[in-house]
Amino acid sequence: PMALLRVSSNIMSLGGFALAIGVLVDASIVMVENAHRHLAGANPARGSAGRESAILAASRQVGRAIFFSLVIIVVSFLPVFLLTGEEGRLFHPLAFTKTFAIAAASILSITLVPILMGAWMRGRVRPEEENPVAMFFRRLYAPVLNRALRFPRTTLLINFLLVPAVVPLALSLGAPSSCRSFGRVRSCTCRRDFR
């Protein structure tokens, strides 16, 4: 699709892949984790039929949510296509690559990933409670989560009090002080006085 739209392979189009890489993998991770949970609770006596039904149940449980969450991300990026002029020429390659990558991930996460799970997830699947690494992190995280849920107003108050801490950082950012045009290229420099 990129060649049909005459989007070249440049820094901005590759930046679209860089922005999308976490989202691309996330959908498959959610699908595999849910299948792992279902397989851990499946009856091993049923053999491959039990494994396939557990994977199918896991895919049905989260497939729609995964697909539509990725579609929402694609739709949220569509206003970038309304940019015109220099801004449009700059950001359209990024928007195209990110949109196409996430659209492909949304389709593959509900079609190819369940098939690969059926082919590759074999043998006994240990439940999370038997995994020492998962249990270590659960022991670290559970008290923090329980305290935050027990005192929601305090948690929100702490977060609201931390927001003003960002203001000095925002005020210390530089602003464009001069812009020059070199033919079709416009260059702006930032000047910041550090004391």
Explain the overall architecture:
By secondary structure, the chain is mainly α. The protein has a domain at 1-130: Multidrug efflux transporter AcrB transmembrane domain (Multidrug efflux transporter AcrB transmembrane fold, Up-down Bundle), CATH 1.20.1640.10. 68% of the residues lie in helices and 8% in strands. It has six helices and two strands; from the N terminus they run ααααααββ. The chain has helices at 11-41, 47-76, 85-120, 132-150, 152-162, 167-171; strands at 175-182, 185-191. A two-stranded antiparallel ribbon has the order 1-2. The longest helix is centred in the middle third of the chain and has 36 residues, at 85-120. It is flat. The protein starts with 10 loop residues before the first helix and ends with a strand. The mean pLDDT is 81.
Can you give keywords for this protein?
single chain; 195 residues; mainly alpha; Multidrug efflux transporter AcrB transmembrane fold; two-stranded antiparallel sheet; 2 strands; 68% helix; flat
Which secondary-structure class do the elements indicate?
mainly alpha
- Which of globular, elongated, flat, extended, rod-shaped describes the shape? flat
> Largest sheet, order of strands side by side?
1-2
Number of helices: 6
Unreliably modeled segments: none
Strand content: 5-15%
How do the SSEs run, as a string of H and E? HHHHHHEE
* Corresponding CATH architecture of the domain at 1-130: Up-down Bundle
CATH class of the domain at 1-130: Mainly Alpha
| Strand segment tally | 2
Mean pLDDT, to the nearest integer, reads 81
The CATH superfamily of the domain at 1-130 turns out to be Multidrug efflux transporter AcrB transmembrane domain
The name CATH uses for the topology of the domain at 1-130 is: Multidrug efflux transporter AcrB transmembrane fold
Q: Helix amount, in percent?
A: 55-70%
Largest sheet report: 2 strands, antiparallel
Radius of gyration: 24 Å
